[in-house]
Design goal:
Four copies of one chain form a homotetramer. Chain A contains nine helices and no strands. Chain A is mainly alpha-helical. Chain A has two domains: 53 residues, Arc Repressor Mutant, subunit A, CATH 1.10.10; 148 residues, Tetracycline Repressor, domain 2 (Orthogonal Bundle). In chain A, helix 4 runs antiparallel to helix 5, helix 4 packs parallel to helix 6 and helix 5 runs antiparallel to helix 6. Chain A is elongated, with a radius of gyration of 20 Å. In chain A, 37% of the residues are buried. The structure holds a DNA duplex (21 and 21 nucleotides).
Chain lengths: 214, 214, 214, 214
Amino acid sequence: MRPTRQARSRETRDRLVRALDQKLREKAFADVSIAELAEAAGLSVGAVYRRFENKDAFIPVIFELYRERLEAFMAGEGRVEIEPDGGLRAAIHTACRVAWRFLDQHGYLVRASHIYSRLRPDLIGDEWEAMLDQARQSADQLLELFGDEVKRQDRAEAAQMFTYLMNTLPIERALYRDEGAAAVLELDDDQFVAAIADTLYGYLVTPDRPATDG
Amino acid sequence: MRPTRQARSRETRDRLVRALDQKLREKAFADVSIAELAEAAGLSVGAVYRRFENKDAFIPVIFELYRERLEAFMAGEGRVEIEPDGGLRAAIHTACRVAWRFLDQHGYLVRASHIYSRLRPDLIGDEWEAMLDQARQSADQLLELFGDEVKRQDRAEAAQMFTYLMNTLPIERALYRDEGAAAVLELDDDQFVAAIADTLYGYLVTPDRPATDG
Amino acid sequence: MRPTRQARSRETRDRLVRALDQKLREKAFADVSIAELAEAAGLSVGAVYRRFENKDAFIPVIFELYRERLEAFMAGEGRVEIEPDGGLRAAIHTACRVAWRFLDQHGYLVRASHIYSRLRPDLIGDEWEAMLDQARQSADQLLELFGDEVKRQDRAEAAQMFTYLMNTLPIERALYRDEGAAAVLELDDDQFVAAIADTLYGYLVTPDRPATDG
Amino acid sequence: MRPTRQARSRETRDRLVRALDQKLREKAFADVSIAELAEAAGLSVGAVYRRFENKDAFIPVIFELYRERLEAFMAGEGRVEIEPDGGLRAAIHTACRVAWRFLDQHGYLVRASHIYSRLRPDLIGDEWEAMLDQARQSADQLLELFGDEVKRQDRAEAAQMFTYLMNTLPIERALYRDEGAAAVLELDDDQFVAAIADTLYGYLVTPDRPATDG
DNA sequence: AATGAATGAGACTTCATTCAT
DNA sequence: CATGAATGAAGTCTCATTCAT
């Protein structure tokens, strides 16, 4: 009996997670009601509350979805081999193309994760930091690999900035297209990705600025 | 009598605007109730509805606050003279320091303006675009001034990207500090601003990438 | 000074009465707000409350308007000479045509008066009854004049019914045209008025029914 | 379980309908608040909104109540056999007595149905017209049955007027008794009904008026 | 006194959460 | 345990009435 029950429980949870994912493509989490979620999952409201204590308990799920998608992506179409011979610039361009593809498809999850990592850091905090840390390590490796091209003195700082930029630069356009700050851009996606990549590259290959007094 | 009446009317509106400003520092506009706003302004709910037709009518106020603050800032502590002799890099560093100071203080308004330029473009749209356009023109001038240092072929594209980056790069950290993507950063504010500036500089002085096939 | 003040007071009241009249053509009294009334009268809300204790105090005004219009009508285009030689049927047709003309123009006042004589009989009661009584006396005179044609035994009862019918039959159509019960009718106005008149006539010339047991 | 659930659901709706019916005896629908309705039904406000999308959704219920009552009445105490041998006058008197009994008990529903067939024809319109049409058909049959007694040339017009009168004449008194136009009447109910019936009869047996010039 | 801004009760509606069945 | 009906707090908005200026 127990395994069956567990399986059923798992199935129920999965349905809810899928329903949530579906809804987040359309609207913000705050605008999704429990009843709506229950219906989309083919469940009763009561069943939802059996799996999740309250609505906030779905917030970690958003992040979980994000991570799952990211892992699946990285293991699949996002898998890239950095060719050391291609040089740093080419490597960054490749990385940006991949990142853009992910954001273009799953940006709504990134957006929601961002929002709730702020609104409810108590509910997401740790996992979010773990992911960022992993991203930073990848950045570290990249900088290591092309150490001779990188002109930044402080390698650790460069890796942090690389991560920050990678998670920051494309988001605005990926999520909101022609609304918001991305409205200034007249580039198409490929041009935009290239520009982003050059920005990252430019940062890394620009030697430190001589100390100034301002 | 008239002036007194008008003064009272104006005073009420100002109180509400101040109350809104206050609340936006704490929470999202969607989470501010009219009753809350009224109380913060020392008014009754009815008084709110005498000044503003409905809750949505506050949305343009958010943007208005943003612009007011920006104008006041630019006319005051944000006023900077670009020294042509200092070179592009110094100019960008200066610009970033100024921008950072503004965002650090008024970023919550920028955030809210961003959000509602998406959610309700009908209510903010035009003015937002006008501001972005103005920013792009400033970028144009800067690139003009240091035309010999800039290596980007397409000047227009460079100005657009410059604007996008300026409005995008610092926001995440300014608004959310250690939550979200900015959590990777171990830099202090000055270092962060310098890194941002170098990123912008790096983009502009990196020559176009030779055409590739992917 | 006093006369001036009184005159001003009177003028204010008249403006409000006119404004109310105007509004009642468009919508029900319950849907007219005091602010709306004040604006239409070119007055301030406070000024309204100087003349009228509260909104209910306008209800008698509705009736007053009705009476004024009726009196003006009867003294003007509604003035009819009953020609004794024409016979009862012609007289009733004439009377109905006149009544119809009034209702067609001022029915909205009649409707409102009806409604509030029910909703707030304490506010209208007496005057309403006085008017009905006057109408009944006119009916009495008509029946007197054509006493030989009228077949109803109880002259008083006939006069009451005549009044009731006159105030009841045309209203529905006059006020609501093709909505409500009048929707069955495919007649034009002239035909309708003629049918109404024949109904009244038919009642008066039908001899009393012999007593029955049901 | 399902039947129980449905039964509860049904029971709730019934309670609300009963509560509405109760309230309509006291006051106009516009003056009944949802909270009031909920309390009268022994429910919470939220429960009301589970059954009815909004307040307007009760409007069709008013009409539905009217029809239910009418059908129940016609199947019960309102059931009458018209005796062809009794003649037209007796038939009309019988019909009026029946109609009066119904209106005396359920007139408030008829009134409300009338009002909302005007105010919100979109919500009631069709069914209302269907009922009126049915009434007109009944009138047609009656006129057919006593075709030799009826003196009106245009049979269709007569049926329309019969319907209009039947729906119009008794309402005022049934609903408002001594307020409004019915205040002139000093008759008791039986006398009033007889007078109404004679009015209808008189209309039908009065030959068409010879053409006149106004 | 006149003005119209302010008040605040109350209406409609939503939805997270509870609980009878 | 599952269901989905019921709860009720909270939010938006209206408007008759009051009251500071």
